[in-house]
Amino acid sequence: MSGPEHQQSQTLIKPALSELQASELVESVFGLKVTKIQPLPSYDDQNFLVHVPRAPETSGDPLKYVLKVNNTESSKNADLVEVQSRIMMFLKAEGFPTATVHPTKGGSLTSLMTIDNGSDTTSYLVRLFSFLPGKPIAQVPVTPKLLYEVGKLAAQMDRSLEKFHHPKISSLHRGDFIWNLRNVPLLEKYAYALGQSKDREMVDWVLKRFHDEIVTKLSHFRELVMLRTSTFL
């Protein structure tokens, strides 16, 4: 097997916890009794939707959380995960519709857990977030108004993040991080996956324009804080 994805898999291992393991983890690390748990889509981490009963004196549907198990590479960078969590908390305090981080029983935002995979053990950073209801943008009709609202929200978020400070914020600046728009040219090595198609032609055209018109001007652009939590990412 060859190609970039195989090369990446040699260093990055996506977690593969069972629902039972995830449920036991929530109860042991976060002290919450799980009544139902189910997997959620994810890219290179592993996510679960967790249902927890409300306190006896309250009524209503069970509370919902998202358990995030970071992949092996992210789990080695505790500073990065810490800053991501602090940014989420900051944006929540600023009034943005973001999830909140549920602390562990010991009051921490994350916990490094060693999971038995049968043949060996692997360590993963785990976090628990409040569940943010809604629909992924891929599941709703894309209209000019929707695109405008997305752009407006991104701009408002960027403006607020100018006020965010953290001693380890430099951990967000990863030179080869493919989700950073500065690194669009890195996508060239993945274009082969599209085969010979109209989509490939369009992607090649965009990459060429980016190289010809943007790369030479990158030093003149103001950089944004690059946050990818994998909550819905």
UniProtKB/TrEMBL annotation:
The keyword Transferase applies. GO terms for molecular function: hydroxylysine kinase activity. It is found in: Cytoplasm. Residues 37-201 form the Aminoglycoside phosphotransferase domain. Gene3D superfamilies: Phosphorylase Kinase, domain 1. It catalyses: (5R)-5-hydroxy-L-lysine + GTP = (5R)-5-phosphooxy-L-lysine + GDP + H(+). Keywords: Cytoplasm, Kinase, Transferase. This is Hydroxylysine kinase. It comes from Phascolarctos cinereus (Koala). The lineage of its organism: Eukaryota, Metazoa, Chordata, Craniata, Vertebrata.
